[in-house]
């Protein structure tokens, strides 16, 4: 069974490509959520929606595309060698609209309209800042090109993202609109004591990085003075510039200022973490992961500032979350920050 399922995954792109070349439509399977409502809620909605929305988002009669999303992209890239990429045609009969995330590697059946929630053009305009550059750039571009040619609508998460999209495909302009991302209800101004911050730093410390002072036998400070950055640890997020600026602040004006980094270890993180290590071992830099929203709200609220230093983003939630929590924000001077944060950062 294990071998068969593995072989099936390997053959899926070829099978998808064959059906697409024959103009066969991919049927949509019915997913009845009655027995899986907890899974649907926890996997897709629990981190952002209030529990009052549970029934509304878990009760609908869902449809599922049986073709894996990755196989659809792989099939498109394989057929590109025949002259142009061919993507599967989904049998969307009976549906007025299909909403997809990012460039969608598939086609819909008329009169269904495809609406693409477009987050950013970073794979096309900043490929040097992402992993697996050639694959992500090619898969993003060709699926996006197909969506544009098919008359899809694009709902962009920021005006900066919309401008980037139109710089590549200006013909899509009449079918583009900007609707900002919504931010979770978990973030709001809350009167609270900063005394919990020390506990959060100890409990949520990344297990794969040097131990915090409490675990090393050093007395922790109960209410540290700190900056916070919330982001996956990878080159595009620009952690090292923040590290340099923080070191300068400590040396020149704020010798007790800590730095708190909240986020997963992303691609090519090793060089960044290596720069972190001396400060991690001293207990002045803290890397946290799996921080629940109520605790993150406190980190935002009591930080000297939330810093958003990224080289490029489609939206950048952390600055908005921090503002909603009553915190101050310092951000890099990039188009999306000027668009979303305006003069509030």
TrEMBL record:
Among InterPro entries, the record links this protein to: Glyco_trans_1
Q: Give start and end of each Glycosyl transferase family domain.
A: 222-344
**Gene Ontology molecular function terms on file:** glycosyltransferase activity
Q: Which UniProt keywords apply?
A: Transferase
CDD domains in the cross-refs: GT4_MtfB-like
Cited Gene3D superfamilies: Glycogen Phosphorylase B
Query: What name goes with this protein?
Result: Glycosyl transferase group 1
Origin species, per record, is: sediment metagenome
């Amino acid at each position: 069974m294990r071998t068969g399922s593995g072989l099936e995954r390997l053959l899926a792109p070829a099978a998808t490509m064959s059906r697409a070349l024959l103009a066969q439509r991919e049927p949509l399977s019915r997913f009845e959520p009655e027995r899986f409502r907890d899974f649907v809620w926890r996997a897709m909605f629990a981190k952002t929606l209030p529990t009052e929305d549970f029934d509304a988002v878990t009760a609908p009669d869902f449809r599922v595309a049986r073709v894996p999303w990755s196989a659809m992209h792989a099939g498109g890239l394989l057929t590109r060698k025949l002259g142009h990429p061919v993507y599967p045609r989904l049998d969307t009969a009976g549906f007025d609209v299909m909403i997809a995330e990012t460039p969608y590697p598939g086609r819909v059946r008329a009169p269904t309209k495809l609406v693409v929630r477009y987050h950013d053009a970073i794979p096309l305009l900043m490929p040097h800042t992402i992993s697996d550059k050639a694959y992500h750039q090619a898969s993003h571009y060709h699926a996006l090109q197909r969506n544009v040619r098919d008359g899809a609508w694009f709902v962009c998460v920021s005006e900066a993202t919309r401008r980037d999209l139109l710089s590549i495909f200006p013909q899509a302009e009449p079918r583009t609109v900007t609707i900002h991302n919504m931010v979770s209800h978990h973030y709001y101004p809350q009167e609270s004591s900063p005394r919990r911050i020390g506990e959060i730093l100890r409990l949520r410390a990344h297990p794969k990085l040097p131990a915090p002072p409490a675990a090393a036998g050093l007395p922790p400070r109960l209410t540290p003075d700190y900056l916070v950055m919330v982001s996956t640890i990878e080159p595009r997020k620009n952690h090292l510039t923040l590290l340099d600026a923080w070191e300068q602040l400590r040396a020149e004006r704020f010798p007790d200022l800590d730095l708190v980094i909240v986020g997963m270890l992303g691609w090519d993180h090793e060089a960044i973490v290596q720069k972190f290590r001396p400060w991690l071992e001293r207990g002045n830099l803290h890397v946290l992961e799996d921080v629940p929203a109520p605790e993150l709200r406190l980190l935002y609220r009591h930080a000297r500032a939330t810093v958003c230093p990224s080289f490029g983003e489609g939206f950048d939630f952390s600055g908005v979350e921090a503002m909603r929590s009553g915190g101050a924000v310092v951000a890099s001077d990039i188009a999306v920050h000027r668009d979303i944060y305006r003069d509030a950062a």
